[in-house]
Specification:
Largest sheet: 3 strands, antiparallel
Order of helices and strands: EHEE
Structural class: mainly beta
Radius of gyration: 18 Å
């Protein structure tokens, strides 16, 4: 695997979590029913070049 920007092979893979978690207000206002649509998150993996800092999807 090489960086598409600089061609370096010194890469690291990282995970990023995107989305909304459970808010305290949502649980207080809606109780257990408030948890039904909560916690919708998505994990995405990226390669990060240690030489130039370029980030791209794995």
């Amino acid at each position: 695997m090489k960086c598409p920007k600089c061609g370096s092979e010194d890469l690291q893979i990282i995970n990023e979590v995107k989305g909304k978690g459970v808010s305290g207000l949502k649980v207080c206002l809606f109780g257990i029913c408030g948890l039904c649509g909560a916690g919708k998150t998505k994990n995405e993996q990226f390669w990060v070049c240690k030489s130039c800092g370029h980030k791209f999807k794995a």
